[in-house]
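[PROTEIN RECORD]
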Amino acid sequence: MKFKEKHLLLSIFLLFWSFASCFEQTADISIPKGYDSNQISFKYPKNWEITQDYYTPAVHNLFVETAGDALVILQSYQSDLAEDLESFSKSFSESSRTDTPVGEASLGHEFENIPKEGGYEWIREQFEISLLGVSVPHRRIYGTKKIADRQIFLIFQVATEDYSKAEPGFRLIRDTLRESKTN
């Protein structure tokens, strides 16, 4: 297959994938799943999946994904090594802008502190992801609080138009995240 044909097929696939993944389902919190490992526990919607869980004593990185394009990232660090929320959110935003594998993420054009809730400090970022000339507004919400000897950072990311579908799942994770009783 020639280079142009491969490029066209890849472009069509990516375009289809980006639109197919835009159909966010409402978070099903009726009978949530549970996570209890690596010093933390929480509940998450039964129609969401943990797709990555990497733990060392220095850092814990966990991804929870929906069937659409919403994403929860949990990162934790030893408290004495963790950044403050403002530095963390701006650093995360910049690295995600340069590391986006498909399309292009705009640099967060709006960061806003939002009221503390549930023991967390919060910052909201508005940004856009563009693919093949189509730009989709997104929201990323960063939260942090200390659990045991760890500083936990939660990152909730979703297309702005789908926020109301993912928000119950975000809230479930936020409200049930605590120190594990089994570790």
Confidence is low (pLDDT under 50) at residues 1-21. Helices lie at 3-20, 85-99, 163-176. The first helix runs from residue 3 to 20. The first strand starts at residue 33 and ends at 37.
